[in-house]
Amino acid sequence: MKVLFIEDDMIECMKMQRAVSKFTTKHQIIEAKNGEEALNILKGGDLPDIIFLDLNMPRMNGIEFLAILKNDEKLRYLPTIILTTSENRTDLLECFKIGIAGYIIKPLKYEDYEDKIKRAFQYWEINELIKG
Ligand SMILES: [Mg+2]
């Protein structure tokens, strides 16, 4: 799958790359440091199969990005999964209200993180993807 990973923290990007590199299926991870950078990538026309989105980011945060995405005639169909440390119920409700395909809390332990990411990828691999 082609995955757009929107995350401002370099350590988190390394964690994602490390986890994905262990999977038997190969995936392409495109990184964006914030919502603004992600929108530029998407407007370039190269659409991913799924998006993993952090909430706490400078410039344009995850919820602001999500609102713009879901208002766009073409981009609104991209399955977007929140990947965050925020257990804030207001964030959770707001994201589901705007429209998300999942909300995953990042576990603190790396092994648990890898396990959750693996299961998320396996779930999306069995889905019919839009292939924009
Ligand atoms: Mg962050």
Automatic annotation (TrEMBL):
Which sequence ranges form a coiled-coil region, renumbered to this chain?
none
Q: Which domain of life is it from?
A: Bacteria
Taken from the record, one Pfam family name reads Response_reg
InterPro entries on file: CheY-like_superfamily, Sig_transdc_resp-reg_receiver, TCS_response_regulator
Q: What is the lineage of its organism?
A: Bacteria, Pseudomonadati, Bacteroidota, Flavobacteriia, Flavobacteriales
What species does this protein belong to?
Answer: Croceivirga radicis
**Residue ranges of every copy of the Response regulatory domain listed in the record:** 2-121
What SUPFAM superfamilies has UniProt attached to this entry?
CheY-like (SSF52172)
CDD domains on file: REC_Rcp-like
Which GO annotations describe the biological process of this protein? phosphorelay signal transduction system
**Keywords carried by this UniProt record:** Phosphoprotein
Q: Which residues carry this modification: 4-aspartylphosphate?
A: D54
| Protein name listed in UniProt | Response regulator
